[in-house]
Amino acid sequence: MSKPFLKLLRWVIATLVVGAVFLFWAGERPYRIFFPGEPEPVEVEPRSDDRSATFVAVGDIMLSRGVAKAILKSGTTNYPFEKLTEILLRSDLNFGNLESPVSGNDHVLGEGLVFNARRDHATALAKYNFKIVNLANNHAFDQGLKGLLATRGFLDNLGVRHIGVGEDEGDAWRPAVLDVNGIKIAFIGASYASINDGGVVRKPNVARIEDQNRLAAAIQRAKIEDADYIVVTMHAGIEYTREPEKGQIAFARAAVDVGADIVIGAHPHWVQTTEIYRGKPIFYSLGNFVFDQRPEERRKGLILRIKLRGSELDEIEMLPVIIDNSAPRLATADESREILRKIGVTDPILRP
């Protein structure tokens, strides 16, 4: 073998060795050439999502009739909420179902099954951190369309968002998206009835639970608006019953099927059973929160303290309440166990 050929062979082998070493080096590091004396940057592990938010959800809030009288007697508009000040003011936001219109006619306190709240009484919602309420319920039209629109305007001026009602069906189904510590939480609301007639008459101003195509479109719109967590609420069910009926179940499961992260119900005036459907929690009824009904089961309710970590559920804490003279308080340990037992819950902390 000639010397020139051997030299060429050694050069080829050396080139291959150097190339192999370079490829190995490049595969282990970002593709960048470093000059002599330049420090190599430290590789940083991707940081997990450290955004967090806590919000509270409650059941029916009715500021009319006997509640209005209790507020006037107490001498403070804080009366319905002050026993739960610590819980309500330590959350990032509170959410509930507002079941009494705020028509602007403060001389009408409501009677029987026709409700109306005074404006000064309703200002306590903002003071106690209720940043959003559902208005889709069977009492939405208690003061007529004028009263419904006045309620929306009052809440807008108060800085309280609202869902479930609107100028038309499209507006009623519009999701409200709130940015909480960088987490976008969407709320969508619907009712089994437009007026207090069991659901017979339809009004285009109130979102209805049978409109599942509009439900799907609302959830899709929330996703387009980059919602991290989607809350669907329903005002539905048979009053004074423990188990949900088929309309509630159909709506709640349909909501999860098309992307809801949690479904929260109200209207039955009792705390109802819960379920986990396709990994998502459904609370069929949280019962009453601020109400003047006197029978024992109607004076019981459930608060949900929902903790999020980024777009994921961290945990839900269930806090039973007892309503004394129209105002809720935290239930005692024995009362809490009894309320949770009736809905089949043994652990008040729900984790995914």
Structure description:
This protein is an alpha/beta fold and 352 residues long. 29% of the residues lie in helices and 27% in strands. It contains ten helices and 17 strands. Strands 1, 2, 5, 6, 13, 14, 15, 16 and 17 form a nine-stranded mixed sheet that branches. Helix 9 links the parallel strand 9 (229-235) and strand 10 (262-266). The radius of gyration is 28 Å and the shape is globular. Mean pLDDT is 90; it is low at 16-47.
Gist of the model:
The protein is 29% helix and 27% strand. It has 352 residues and is of the alpha/beta class.
Give the helices and strands, then pairings.
Layout: H1 3-28, E1 52-61, H2 65-74, H3 85-89, E2 93-98, E3 110-111, E4 114-115, H4 119-122, H5 124-127, E5 130-134, H6 144-158, E6 161-163, H7 169-172, E7 176-180, E8 183-191, H8 212-224, E9 229-235, H9 246-257, E10 262-266, E11 274-277, E12 280-283, E13 288-290, E14 300-309, E15 312-324, E16 327-330, H10 333-342, E17 349-350
Parallel strand pairs: 1-2, 1-13, 2-5, 5-6, 8-9, 9-10, 10-12
Antiparallel strand pairs: 1-14, 3-4, 7-8, 11-12, 14-15, 15-16, 15-17
Counting helices, strands and paired strands, the structural category is alpha/beta
Please give the radius of gyration in angstroms: 28 Å
Number of strands: 17
Strand content: 25-35%
Low-pLDDT runs of 5+ residues are 16-47
The helix tally amounts to 10
**Share of residues in helices:** 25-40%
Shape: globular
Order of helices and strands: HEHHEEEHHEHEHEEHEHEEEEEEEHE
Distance between the termini: 74 Å
Biggest β-sheet strands, sense, barrel: 9 strands, mixed
What is the residue-averaged pLDDT?
90
